[in-house]
Design goal:
7 strands; single chain; 42% helix; alpha/beta; 8 helices; 276 residues
Length: 276
């Protein structure tokens, strides 16, 4: 018996990175999976987007565990479309939902006073409003089940200020406020709501030219190794970044019965970054 055996978990941003790792890790521990992702570009974001092929790779990885999986494309900014996709998938998996991982997110960078209105608005629309839309679309299913767990993916930027990403930092702080309010509101229904706060994670969100140059402005085209040298300075432990599975393991814990009385907490998975 797995730690979430017999449960159904919905994950946004499931095509790659943390979302894929959460989907696979929860499946390894017995959950069936609803895997949602936009699988397309978002305005103001220059990092190559996830693709339908990425989402299909997630599906294959989940299926290898023996779990059932339903995948769909959905934009977390579109509440009606998100609800429709979630409702269809939940129905296909037997009409139950127990775990929600609100993980879809974007990144972009500029000094706070140089951000365009489009950069600011798009960041909050995806990284904050999109999390709220995910919770709003899925909460009725958890309420109908009589309980469940919501895990909202924030960041160390939800616990401290970071340079060059004021809009990202504001959105991730907003996720914490949303989590704390929903934890209060949903507790009578037996629903626990928590947030996880990664340091840098080895995914396409950081492994790109934009982020590497922000860490190594002394290099025209920083290598992965040169980026790692600079990223080491963020963390207390001597590592430049954590792996997606590290966030997935924390999410699995919060989804499991081991965390049955844990709600409204901000759980750093940050190699000590927020304590430096």
């Amino acid at each position: 018996m797995g730690r979430v055996s017999g449960k159904v978990a919905l994950v946004t941003g499931a095509a790659r990175g943390i979302g894929r790792a959460q989907a696979v890790r929860l499946a390894e521990e017995g959950a069936d999976i609803v895997a949602l992702d936009l699988c397309g570009p978002v305005e103001t974001v220059i990092i190559p987007p996830a693709t339908p092929e990425d989402l299909e790779q997630t599906v294959r990885a989940v299926e290898k565990t023996g779990a059932r999986v339903v995948a769909a494309t959905a934009d977390v900014r579109d509440g009606a479309a998100l609800r429709a996709a979630a409702d269809r998938a939940v129905d296909e998996l037997g009409g139950r939902l127990d775990v929600v991982c609100a993980t879809a997110g974007i990144t972009s960078s500029a000094p706070g006073l140089q951000l365009t209105e489009d950069q600011w608005r798009t960041m909050l629309d995806v990284n904050l409003t999109g999390v709220w839309q995910t919770c709003k679309a899925t909460a009725p299913h958890l309420i109908a089940r009589g309980g469940g767990s919501m895990i909202l993916t924030s960041s160390i930027a939800g616990l401290r200020g970071l340079v060059g990403v004021a809009h990202y930092t504001a959105a991730k702080h907003g996720v914490v406020g949303l989590m704390r309010s929903l934890a209060q509101e949903l507790a009578p229904h037996g629903i626990r709501v928590n947030s996880v706060h990664p340091t840098n994670v080895d995914t396409p969100m950081i492994q790109n030219d934009m982020v590497r140059r922000s860490f190594r402005p002394d290099r025209e085209n920083p290598t992965r190794e040169e980026f790692a040298e600079a990223a080491l300075t963020m963390n207390m432990l001597p590592i430049p970044w954590v792996e997606p599975v590290d966030i997935a393991n924390a999410s699995l814990f919060l989804a499991s019965e081991e965390a049955r009385y844990i709600t409204a907490v901000t759980l750093p998975v940050d190699a000590g970054s927020t304590q430096r």
